[in-house]
Amino acid sequence: MKKTLLFGIISFLFFSATAQKQDNAAKAKADSLKWARLEAKMVYPLFNTGKFSGVIPVNDPTEIPDPNMNYKLLFELLIINKDSAATEINHGITEICRIINLHVASGIPVSNINPVIVVHGPALFAFYNNDRYKKKYKTDNPNISIIEEMIKKTGTKFIACGQAMGFREVSKEEMIPQMKISLTAQTVLSGYQLKGYKLFSIAEDRQ
Q1: How many other CB atoms are there within 10 angstroms of residue 182's CB atom?
Q2: Which stretch, 3-12, 52-61, 152-161, has highest mean pLDDT?
Q3: Candidates 3.40.1260.10, 1.10.4100.10, 3.40.50.360, 1.20.120.160; correct CATH number of 51-60+67-202?
Q4: pLDDT by residue (tens digit) across 13-53?
Q5: Which of 84, 98, 183, 207 could form a disulfide with 53, with the two C-beta atoms 3.0–4.6 Å apart?
Q6: What pairing do the DSSP bridges indicate for beta strands 198-202 and 180-182?
Q7: DSSP state of 86
Q8: φ and ψ of 160, to 5 deg
């Protein structure tokens, strides 16, 4: 009786695990097909840093932003890729590019978009100069070209938190030359918001 019950329990657990694995595989396949369909539709009006920076077109939207306004965008960037993704553009930068793309796709002129990116926490490492990045990750810094493109196309300003640099032991000389240094991110965030900038917190890696 006990052996039969034990066999039944083991069989149930085995078939449950097998069914769960099959469900997971089916879900992964469905997600992959969904992304393939979405990618086929996506457009990249200003920046292309991969599929997560794309915009899905919307036919005849009924809420249209004012194209004559000055869109002052303030981004607080905190995330860093896992070491295994060190060859990829920082996922937070990709999200920022997606937000800017959404503004452009909505009909806002690039000349009316003014991004400021405040960098602190581990995100500082994405802004190492190429030599320092290669020393840490054994690969060239994939972020440098998109940083240069953002500056060229939108005049994006990059500002590092001096407190975070001290805590992370990152020197100014190790950073990209385009990076401005502040005493603290907190005064930059408060100051720019008082100037009318809209704050976006880029703190969670969804990729």
Answers
A1: 20
A2: 152-161
A3: 3.40.1260.10
A4: 666 666 566 566 656 556 556 656 777 789 999 999 998 99
A5: 98
A6: unpaired
A7: T
A8: -95, 145
Provide DSSP, 178-202.
Answer: T-EEES-HHHHHHHHHHTTPEEEEE
- pTM strictly above 0.85: no
Determine the 3-state secondary structure of 175 from DSSP. strand
Instruction: For residues 86 and 169, give the distance between their C-alpha atoms in angstroms, rounded to a whole number.
Output: 20
The Cα–Cα gap between 22 and 15 comes to 10
Q: Both tokens of residue 166? A: 């001290």
Handedness of CA 88, 186, 200, 181 (dihedral sign): negative
Q: Give the three-state DSSP class for 101.
A: helix
For the record, the structure tokens of 89 come out as 């553009």
Asked if 115 and 156 count as a contact pair (C-beta separation under 8 A), the reply is yes
DSSP-derived secondary structure letter, 34 = H
